[in-house]
Amino acid sequence: MFVRPARSLTIAVAVIAFCFMVSIFEGGLHSYSRNRLSIITAPVHEAPPPPSRIVDFWAKWATVMDKAKPKIPPIKLNRPASVEGSDKATGERAPMQESLGLPEDDWKLLHESHSTLVNAPGFNETNEQASSLFSGAGVVTVAGGPYLPPAILGIRMLRKTGSNLPVQVFLQSREEYEPEICESVLPALNAECFVIQDHLRKDAPFKVARFQLKVLAILFSTFETVLYMDSDCMALRNPAELLESEPFLSSGFLSWGDYWKATEDPVFYKIAGMSDFPKGLPAKSSESGQMVISKKKHLNTLLLAAYYNVFGPDYYYPLQSQGAMGQGDKESFLAAAVVLGNPYYRVKETLGTLGYSDAKGEFHGGAMVQWSAAEEYASANTSDKTKPRPFFLHANLPKLNVARMLDEKKIYQPGTETRIRMWGPEESTRKIFGSDIERMAWNEMRDMACELNDTMKDFKGRTNICQRAQEHYKQLFETETG
Ligand SMILES: *[C@@H]1O[C@H](CO)[C@@H](O)[C@H](O)[C@H]1NC(C)=O
Ligand SMILES: *[C@@H]1O[C@H](CO)[C@@H](O)[C@H](O)[C@H]1NC(C)=O
Ligand SMILES: *[C@@H]1O[C@H](CO)[C@@H](O)[C@H](O)[C@H]1NC(C)=O
């Protein structure tokens, strides 16, 4: 299923030629990704229906999760956990004090509910079921509304790496479904839309929103192997490099770390049925903006992570983070793997930060850099002490929605007309990445502003975004070569 760079280039060329052929017929492109034989069909103007085998699978486990619903009132935080000393948090994680102060009766009840899920008949066998439910490898993201433009940027940047991995974009609801984007813009990029709500039965036992969507998008994707990326995250190298090598092949789960030290209350592991605080955990918490996961090895991990998210805001988010920075889904995936004794690889290299310094010399962080798990692993037992190369850029401040960046003046230093190179000077960018990735990203953002100004819901009705993006590119990058 994985394509090597040389082959993927050929495929990319073929896809471009094919899309060109299709577009001259002005037919819906929608059929392309679903059925290569019927080239011309009327646009469908609705999201593709989810495969019923996946809907049934989720309906079954959602019912079990509902039976496993925590039977105590929501957990209250006394105060957010301190992340002081995060810089020095390296090596193995040491347990914090039990600071939520959960009475024994309470955590025992939580434990009982948790067991209802992990001891449900067939729970661990879901991994063996994965091959009949899911297939192939691909990229999954959750987007919609103002998050759709950064997601499309991410897909366009992915194509620049030579990867033609198919992409599934999950929207929360029908209201977020944009027919032109989903039925012609994305299929031309070998990407398609799904609506998360369509996967949930009308009588679904619980509602889902926000952070909870991520694990469901991964579960509902038809791919067996998922590279999940937040809509504001982009791959800088061909993901085949990670998917086809160790440590992914044997672990089936790659996870990256955050800035902050881990702050779970150790009582979480008692609730999860472990007698001791687990050994070998990384000192830092997780940054789940990108993950690679194989359902053949981890479908039960994903189900347990879904449980932690469904009952996250009232129970498992405070148990796993205690209100520390970025509390949400971030710890749920690794925690689930650890609780089930499933393998994982956690990248050791500390994430990097890109940003710029303003006129007063103040630094403004804008993007996180995460490194190649494959290179780190390969050089681990050798004398090679070079750092692994950058693999992902998680550009969260600002989100790379070109229209909003222009309208909200995010392209200038605050209160001035001075244009910003968001990720630092050209020279240092080239040194870290081998090319000026900021220029590459702006090249795509400019083209998106010009191609999609009449199409993308979030771009419509704005003034001259195409010209303004062209001007920004011209002022900052046009004199560059190579
Ligand atoms: C699944 O595996 C976990 C971890 O080993 C175990 O605690 C649980 O009891 C197993 N579930 C079943 C139904 O066997
Ligand atoms: C490096 O050594 C460790 C400990 O012996 C081992 O677990 C790991 O698989 C080795 N890594 C490689 C790339 O050989
Ligand atoms: C979109 O951009 C194109 C190219 O600059 C321009 O011709 C067109 O008028 C723009 N549409 C809107 C609605 O601004």
TrEMBL record:
It comes from Stereocaulon virgatum. Pathway: Protein modification; protein glycosylation. Its main location: Golgi. InterPro entries: Alpha_mannosyltransferase (IPR022751), Nucleotide-diphossugar_trans (IPR029044). Pfam families: Mannosyl_trans3. Belongs to the MNN1/MNT family. This is Nucleotide-diphospho-sugar transferase. It is a single-pass type II membrane protein. Keywords: Golgi apparatus, Membrane, Signal-anchor, Transferase, Transmembrane, Transmembrane helix. SUPFAM superfamilies: Nucleotide-diphospho-sugar transferases. The chain crosses the membrane at residues 6-29. It is found in: Golgi apparatus membrane. Residues 75-97 are annotated as: Disordered. The keyword Mitochondrion does not apply.
